[in-house]
């Protein structure tokens, strides 16, 4: 077997490993139902396309779709930030194929390239393919052309690949050369800001896959492919991952840190342990970015829609605060990746104790970060008068969403949310109240005297619901095991 054949075999084995790992956590049928849900959702949107296109143009729909897929790629492409943890992570007695360079004469870059290709195929099959398949199924009713749907599959995949390869390369540069990464990011940010202020060009033209969708020009196909290959090659060649041979010494700080968390009573010691883990594992930055990043993207996206596309949306500071609850779930997922909790099985600690600890740690992050974000955004939008109500909405939506996530998924958030049953419960629990807050925020300016108390009353109900879910964590998770 030649080198290319061996590499394809390695990718196939990693795909099987991924399927078995997820199926072992939530069940094979439940795992495979996740793309089915996306397909059904896409089909519904496609059937409603005539009404949607009546309110906005086809080009605007393309811009939003490709921007979201590019952002999706950015979100899942930070492999280098997690590469060392993935390579050294064990699930009980289970080792990953990514660890084979520690045992066999194979380069880590070779293994990680296969892992990268595996994840690209995995995400495309899990999300993008069913998204486009839903549109394809609507052809008999909507009259879409088969060639147009296939072309959309191509351009949508390219937008995702551009996002994931850019994120992978940036994270690899960040791990190896942090000063260079900061300088590069600052330079690009300054150029984009200057180009926007000076109105030098249309910022949407920076995404070649979108231009390919608009023009069907072969040049943009070649440019997109070259960028994906170039960025991926840069990421793999600069990748730096060390296996568990290095060590660092830290000053003893458990007792001092524990005193800082005395306000948490029985959870103080576990909170101190998690806080120290966050700092020593250098995960604090990615956790903050996982929370602030989507919020900033949302603000930029709506600025883009309003300022560039000229589509007026009645959003305000309350709208953004309602979105905060959704993004808090990402922090909870990151906190569950800090370490393998199986060692706690021999300690007088229950799973429910650790779940509550994660919720309390997240609450501290959300309290600080959401407050700063809303204050800064309020200043930028000249809406500081809405700040008290926006803070109330942000705090209450976060409390309800996070407690609901903890109650439903425990310490395995990133796996259980692929279970359609759990995802459906999460959606039924969280989407209606948060969507209600969004709708109320749209109408707040029309009648503040009426909608203000209504929003306040709904926030009170969310806080009560979050408290009940938090109390239910003991009943739901106290008898579970830490073992995989």
What topology does this entry show?
Elements: H1 3-26, H2 28-47, H3 49-55, H4 58-76, H5 79-88, H6 108-137, H7 139-142, H8 146-176, H9 178-198, H10 208-215, H11 218-238, H12 254-260, H13 268-280, H14 284-307, H15 317-335, H16 351-381, H17 387-409, H18 413-416, H19 420-443, H20 448-477
Helix pairs in contact: 1-2, 1-6, 2-6, 4-8, 4-10, 4-14, 6-8, 8-9, 8-10, 8-11, 10-11, 12-13, 13-16, 14-15, 14-16, 15-16, 15-17, 15-19, 16-17, 16-20, 17-19, 17-20, 19-20
> Span from first to last CA?
35 Å
- Counting structural domains, the number is 2
Envelope shape: globular
Overall pLDDT: 77
Could you state the order of secondary-structure elements as H and E? HHHHHHHHHHHHHHHHHHHH
Helix content: over 70%
What oligomeric state do the depicted chains represent?
single chain
Q: Bin the strand percentage.
A: under 5%
Poorly predicted runs of 5 or more residues: 90-94
Largest sheet: none
Structural class determined from secondary elements: mainly alpha
How many DSSP E strands? Answer: 0
Gyration radius from CA atoms, angstroms: 23 Å
Tally of helical runs: 20
